[in-house]
Amino acid sequence: MPRIKLGKPQVSPDLPAHTPGINQGNAKGNYAKMAGHNPDGTSTALRSTGINPKAHDPIDPSMPNLSPG
Amino acid sequence: MAVRESVRPEAGRLVDMAWDPITRIVGNLGIYTKIDFDNREVVSCKSTSSLFRGYSVFMKGKDPRDAHFITSRICGICGDNHAVCSCYAQQMAYGVKPPPLGEWIVNLGEAAEYIFDHIIFQDNLVFVDFCEQMVRETNPSLLERAEKTEARHADLHGYRTIADIMRSYNPFTGETYKEALLMSRIGREMICLMEGRHVHPSTIYPGGVGTVATPTLFTDYLSRLLRCLDFIKKAVAMNDDVFDFFYEALPGYEEVGRRRILLGCWGAFNNPEHCTYEYRTMDDWGNEMFVTPGVVVDGELLTTNLVDINLGIRILLGSSYYEDWVNEETFVAQDPLGNPVDKRHPWNQTTIPKPQKRDLEGGNYSWVMSPRWYDKRTEQHLALDTGGGALARLWVTALANKVKTPYVQATGQSVLINLPKTPNTAEQTLEWKVPQWSNAIERDRARIYFVAYSAAMALHFLDQGLAEVRAGRTKVFEDFDVPDEAIGCGFHEAVRGVLSHHLVIRDGKIANYHPYPPTPWNGSPTDSFGTPGPYEDAVMGQPIFEENDQDSFRGIDIMRAVRSFDPCLPCGVHMYLGKGKTLRTVHSPMFGEHGQG
After folding, report:
1. Is the peptide bond before B199 cis (omega within 30 degrees of 0)?
2. Number of H helices, E strands in chain B
3. To the nearest whole angstrom, how far is the Cα of A55 from the nearest Cα of chain B?
4. What is the distance between the alpha carbons of residues B22 and B544, in angstroms, rounded to a whole number?
5. Which among A24, A31, A65 is the nearest to B472, CB-wise?
6. What angle do CA A53, A59, A63 make, to 5 degrees?
């Protein structure tokens, strides 16, 4: 570590962003838990709204399902 | 390889000339020269930096998932390059590959960054050195000739003479200057569409992106890109006219900023069809990048293998304010392929700052270290430069002859760039040919050609991204777990050249992290072997064409040489507050101020 004179810190050293035991949003398996995101990489209107989502899916099944996000 | 020589005894009227700081973008780069005014030549040059920042010091112990957010702050102009490069390194460490659509979105964001950043640097900063006002002050006879010289591509850009083009470059008043400001704004809007924010992206993460890919996203991007293309087609023609004029009007101008051809490019735009982020197959997927990685020495392409490139990196000291780390911990003794990793490699570097007085006469004089690339053939530590980024990218891509897309094709000696018809201009095919020299003019010329390259590539990425969306494949991120122990490296191109991030994770935290952006390569001081850094090497021995005498000397040729590398030192050293500087904590109320008016 650097051997230079340092002043008195004005703040306490920051902790790592992650505390062990707390779930991580990036953790494996979380994609499968998200509504409207299909295992094959496609998605449905359920990812955008929980209110009558099927009414927002495309009328023709051959059309790509492109919800507004 | 040029080695620093002491000032020749036969030198004529030697004068110390220093530019510190060199302005435009960078505020802490100093160039110290000795100029022989009798022989109109720069005899000695030293490049210094007076800023220490310590990213590699304070990254230790942090959560690795924060790395891209923190390292993005290294730079206030190409922060997204750092964020992306950090994500590449993290993806290798976590063993995660983003879905194709996520990768295309990152590529689109980075293409927009090259367009925006190169345009603002070229037209609003570099061309101040080539504008009518500056040429009038430094080379009045050259301006007279420019007034009489017809521009070859007047039909494309509408300026009849070279002097007319130069007038359009005049800061704040010139048409091109003002139009470039608008283009750089549009470029930044394009980045914001894909990466959420500029300069520090908010939707780029390891494992993918948070951008919601809809057809509107891509059409919003495309409509802006087409506006930029009109400008780019004109700009390439104007650049060619001005740079060719300098060669013709000032014979020998190719010597300005010229150095041995020692170029490095770490590759850009990963191809999701091939890229796995696995170290073991890095050679394979590295060669599929849409800007080929490689090292060019004396015009010969030595390698395009990212593993070779990685293992060849050496961080030398010699004139820098640091203690050596030979007795410190070795973090990575072998890479995942079993190859030994050198003690001077970024994976094993420990940064130990040692502030001291600047000593330009044989002592230490810079906070920048000296990154070099070890050439196994000759056992030399090469002081590679990036040619301001664009020159090395085009040179390596041209020679490697691997990039074949509908809009950009490498040929082995050149790069063909096809630009479609746009609202105000016809279809155009540009050809960037490998130049004879690595000098100031060719670095500047390559920059505008790379803007065209990026714009053409962006069209390809749009096609690919929209194909994914039309197929309904909207997934843009992949989940992952952070391992307790892992290593990773990311190779990318910051706008001004090579960018690498090296990461070591232990106990789920960062044990070692070293970002190596382009400016430490270009602006490095003389290393422990006596090899000068590229700025020093390029300026040393260059002729002076400025007509002013010693009293009113502006150093325009030296400035053109240094600025051709696109100097950006804030990312060169990783804040040191000198004696007497007091830090105060000030409370700034957010509410209440408006109510008092």
Report:
1. yes
2. 17, 19
3. 18
4. 18
5. A65
6. 105
Nearest CB to A30; choose among B63, B353, B479: B479
CB count in 10 Å sphere of residue B210? 16
Select from B62, B353, B479 the Cβ nearest to the Cβ of A26: B479
Listed by start position, the domains of chain A span 29-58
- Within an 8 Å CB–CB cutoff, is residue A46 touching chain B? no
B64-92 pLDDT, tens digit per residue, is 999 999 999 988 889 999 999 999 999 99
Residue B311: both structure tokens together: 């293992």
State the Cα–Cα distance between residues B120 and B126, nearest whole angstrom: 9
Facing A26 at nearest CB: one of B54, B65, B99: B65
- Across A2-27, b (16+ Cβ under 10 Å) vs e yields beeeeeeeeeeeeebebeeeeeeebe
Q: Mind telling me how many Å the CA of B196 is from chain A's nearest CA?
A: 14
User: For every residue of B107-128, which 3-state class applies, written as one string?
Assistant: HHHHHHHHHHHHHHHHHHCHHH
Residue position matching structure tokens 């367009």: B115
Q: Quote the ipTM score.
A: 0.86
Mean pLDDT of B144-166: 97
Q: What is the pLDDT of residues B407-433, one digit of tens each?
A: 999 999 999 999 999 999 999 999 999
Mutate to test the interface with A, among B68, B96, B479 (most CBs of A within 10 A): B479
- Residues with Cβ < 8 Å from B531, sequence gap 6 or more? B1, B2, B3, B4, B370, B372, B381, B383
Taking a C-beta distance cutoff of 8 angstroms, is the pair B221, B190 a contact?
yes
d(CA B243, CA B158): 17
Interface test with B, best of A26, A34, A42, A49 (most B CBs within 10 A): A26
